[in-house]
Amino acid sequence: MSASLDPKRTIADLKELRSLTADESGAQRVAFTAVWAKTREWLTAKLAKLPVETHIDAAGNLWATLRGESTRELLIGGHMDSVPNGGWLDGCLNVLAGLEILRRIAAQTGGRPPVTVRLVDWADEEGARFGKSLFGSSACGGTLDMDEARALVDRDGIALPDALEAQGIAFERVKESGVELARAAAYLELHIEQGPVLLDLDLPLGVVLGTCGVERHAITFRGQAAHSGSTPMNRRKDAFLAAAKMCPEIYRIAERHGGVCTIGSCKTEPGIVTSVAAECRITLDQRHLDAAALAAMHAEAREAAARFAAEGGVSVEWERLWHIEPIPFDPDLIELCDGAILETCGVSHRLPSGPLHDAAEVARAGVPTVMMFVQSLLGISHNKIEDTKEEHIEMAVAAFDRLADRTMAWIVSRREGVSAG
Q1: Beta bridge partners of 287
Q2: Mean pLDDT over all residues of the chain?
Q3: Spatial separation of the C-alpha atoms in residues 1 and 97, rounded to whole Å
Q4: Is it the case that residue 417 has pLDDT exceeding 70?
Q5: Domains identified in the chain and CATH numbers
Q6: Residue-wise pLDDT tens digits, 207-222
Q7: What is the pLDDT of residues 255-304, one digit of tens each?
Q8: Which H, E and C letters describe the chain, residue by residue?
Q9: Close Cβ partners of 52 (under 8 Å, ≥ 6 residues apart)
């Protein structure tokens, strides 16, 4: 770890931010709100002490640029926004670790690193107010569905374009932010794991292989309503029974393929205790890092649904709610991240990310990308009890700093056609 890097300062910054933007229920840094704007002002004041140029792009993303000997750029990113009643680390750890790395690089290089280094605070990663996650990064990466986003409203009936206008952002121009990636040579992101894998392995840090692909569907079984007292069991066309058989089966499917799955909701009609269910609608979420395995999971779930419907004398229909392909991260950067972790704490672990992150959108845009995870206590996030040991936060900042140095050398080596070592 560099003598000028101070991970304890990152922890102090995180605690200062918590005191400024949280209450007894947790963090309240919901994007495009007054507290979020206050957060941005606080971060900008920290950046003003460094020899960096700051600006807000067309999508509301905040950029801090430390000009280097090369115009090729190392991007370090995260998000300062939170869910309502969120934790003290989700998103902001990424940005504040990046801030500390900027401090170190500026001090050691006299403000002139070998490549240009940029810190980005992506706007509205969480999607807490309008239900659309990864807004700023998807706009920048060019994948934002403008028609879908234009129609989004919050619980008070305020449209997303109007909320953006209140923050000085012109909705119809948000994709112009794509110019920010023109010289990007690599993107790095640090995040709390948000799950229990590293916790269960008793490891502080891990390398993220990529973000999982998602198949999300609504499955509707249709049978026949009938009196629950007078209808013999062998004469029923029970839509709920067919749906219920899906629950253990999709777990078996996920286990066979090494993925994850969730039936997250279930609604029956007529939904009364004195009637057999005429209709049952469930939602299914399946995730895997491998596209072929995800496709197999989906196909087997469809086959199972058809089989259970036939057994119960009911019909079944599928409706796709959402799909995204798996997004693997860059193999070279995965190796560099692994090496940085090993050098910091002696042991590393490679794992996929089930949740999506801004890093996925940057990778989709063609920028070599990798993420580093730090252990989450209890495997819990999006909750005020979210936490990570301070010693692990310090390790994460130190390892992330090493990764930044290794990646700068990698960027230079790609330009010069030599090995980065």
Answers
A1: 214, 260
A2: 96
A3: 14
A4: no
A5: 7-211+326-416 (3.40.630.10), 213-324 (3.30.70.360)
A6: 999 999 999 999 999 9
A7: 999 999 999 999 999 999 999 999 999 999 999 999 999 999 999 999 99
A8: CCCCCCHHHHHHHHHHHHHHHEECCEECCCCCCHHHHHHHHHHHHHHCCCCCEEEECCCCCEEEEECCCEEEEEEEEECCCCCCCECCCCCHHHHHHHHHHHHHHHHHHCCCCCEEEEEEECCCCCCCCCCCCCHHHHHHHCCCCHHHHHCCECCCCCEHHHHHHHCCCCHHHHHHHHHHHCCEEEEEEEEECCCCHHHHHCCCEEEEEEECEEEEEEEEEECCCCECCCCCHHHCCCHHHHHHHHHHHHHHHHHHHCCEEEEEEEEEECCCCCECCCEEEEEEEEEECCHHHHHHHHHHHHHHHHHHHHHHCCEEEEEEEEEECCEECCHHHHHHHHHHHHHHHCCCCEEEECCCCHHHHHHHCCCCEEEEEECCECCCCCCCCCECCHHHHHHHHHHHHHHHHHHHHHHHHHHHCCCCC
A9: 64, 65, 66, 102, 106, 119
pLDDT tens figures, 59-75 = 999 999 999 999 999 99
Three-point CA angle 369, 372, 373, nearest 5°: 140
pTM: 0.90
Q: Which two tokens stand for residue 237?
A: 């066309």
Instruction: State the Cα–Cα distance between residues 404 and 407, nearest whole angstrom.
Output: 5
The whole-number average pLDDT for the span 75-98 is: 97
